[in-house]
Amino acid sequence: MGADSQPADLFLLKAQRSRALNTLFLLLTALLVTSIGIFSGILVYRQYTQMNRYQRTLYLPREGSSDETLQQLESYYKDRGFLDGLKSWTWGKPPAGDHVQEDFDLDVADGNYEKITVPSFSGGPNTRFIHDFNANMTGIVDFIQQTCYIMPLNRSVIMQPKDLMDAIKHMITGDYTLEPEEIRENWRVVTPALSASEVAAKSELLSNECIEFNTYNLEKIVQGVFKRSLDAADVRQFDEIIGSKKFYFNIHQ
Length: 253
Prior knowledge:
- It is found in: Membrane.
- GO terms for molecular function: amyloid-beta binding.
- The chain crosses the membrane at residues 20-45.
- Keywords: Cell membrane, Disulfide bond, Glycoprotein, Membrane, Signal-anchor, Transmembrane, Transmembrane helix.
- This is Integral membrane protein 2.
- This protein is 35% helix and 30% strand.
- By secondary structure, it is α+β, with helices and mostly antiparallel strands.
- It has a ten-stranded mixed β-sheet with strand order 1-2-3-4-5-6-8-7-10-9.
- Strand 5 (137-142) and strand 6 (147-152) form a beta hairpin.
- The chain is elongated and about 100 Å long.
- 24% of the residues are buried.
């Protein structure tokens, strides 16, 4: 009996090992297929978001720019054919003349946001303006002072992403003037700083952008009761060009 049972036990052990190996192989195959699916999904999502975002570096005239500068900018854009679809950042040698650089990141597919970055070498503070159309909030990220300011989004003057993209195209082809209408606003910082949860409740997008900075609400100063600060150090000015409008945000500490 003992001798006869040994082959049976050996066969049973081999069968168990074979089932275990088959199970392991199936698990590894399923894991591989799942990983490929996730990776492919990420690639497709990234491609979709890139195709539906308008990212450009633009050079715009400063206040009081000469006719020569305006002509140089218009010639610069026409020579480079900036209207070929939704391409990425336009790098290369800047145009001649006195100008301001702005980097645009626009969600033209869903119209959720606009991000407009003004580097410090454009003549002002290194700043990013974020317009969150889902939360109806605007944020100003001051990278120099490592501070964020948030205010309600003014839809009456801030263009939707697709409209802004169209305006940019018209500006660089000379259909719209490169000398925008000026809008000046005065705002007061509301203290204390907001907590992370308070910022997230107002706008998840701004919360992600300002996660490492102190963030403050801004309160608009009514022009009738506005008194100009005697100390210029207490006022920070942020400039933003959006299509046919140029905004001057004076933030009083």
